[in-house]
Amino acid sequence: MSVAATQNSRTMLNKVPAVTLVFWIIKILSTTVGETGADLLIFKLHWGLALTSLVMLLPLLLIVILQLRATRYVPWIYWSTVVMISIVGTLITDNLVDNLGVSLEATSIAFSVLLVLTFGIWHAQEQTLSINSIDTPKRERFYWLAILFTFALGTAAGDLVGESMKLGYGVSALIFAGLIALVAIAHYVFKLGVVTAFWVIYVLTRPFGASCGDWLSKSVAKGGMGFGTLGTSEIFLVIIVALVVYLTLQDRRQLAAAAR
């Protein structure tokens, strides 16, 4: 095999979408669906935590294989992967806390350490953590591992603030929204690095979205709006699908223009 062919087999087009307003909207909606979707299967359908966790592993595995086999960013595959990782990341934390009795504080610390280690090894081997260069299989594997840990960490941190500290879902959402705003200010005003700002906000949008999901779905008696897990999940999934269709059409137009 020639050197050129070897390089082509190891490199591909960037597999991550541009970070735009639509990106963050779908990301937050995905985290909300991860929270409400897991609750729907566990409590409303009475699958239980253990069964739900096992059942979700198969679709996660299938969509991750599709994503890793793709040679470029494909909107519906990418965002399906994000939604599934959101659900499974939530379930991992729930299993640690509810089934194994690990405290939310310990869970938050453990996933923080795992995320930092992932970034450290990723940067040591690739010299970058930029999502604008997810263009090799190794970088993509690091990327999705980091995404999984951000969801698991965000779930633990969100539950810690919203439940253990008894601040309520609405207040919890406002706290995380405020932290996201502070990071954005640090980036745009005080020149915090774009890579650092992205990953910090990516972590924070998980508990923000989860808190919003709980606030919308939980009963009024529990401090929520009472829309239910099914209603909240359906509404947010419809919005996600509509935005992914929009991104798919946009992607096709860009490919057609590039082929001319």
From TrEMBL:
It comes from the Bacteria. The chain crosses the membrane at residues 12-33, 45-66, 73-92, 104-122, 142-161, 167-185, 192-210, 230-249. Keywords: Membrane, Transmembrane, Transmembrane helix. The keyword Oxidoreductase does not apply. It holds the Pfam family DUF347. InterPro entries: DUF347. This is Uncharacterized membrane-anchored protein. It comes from Pseudomonas pohangensis.
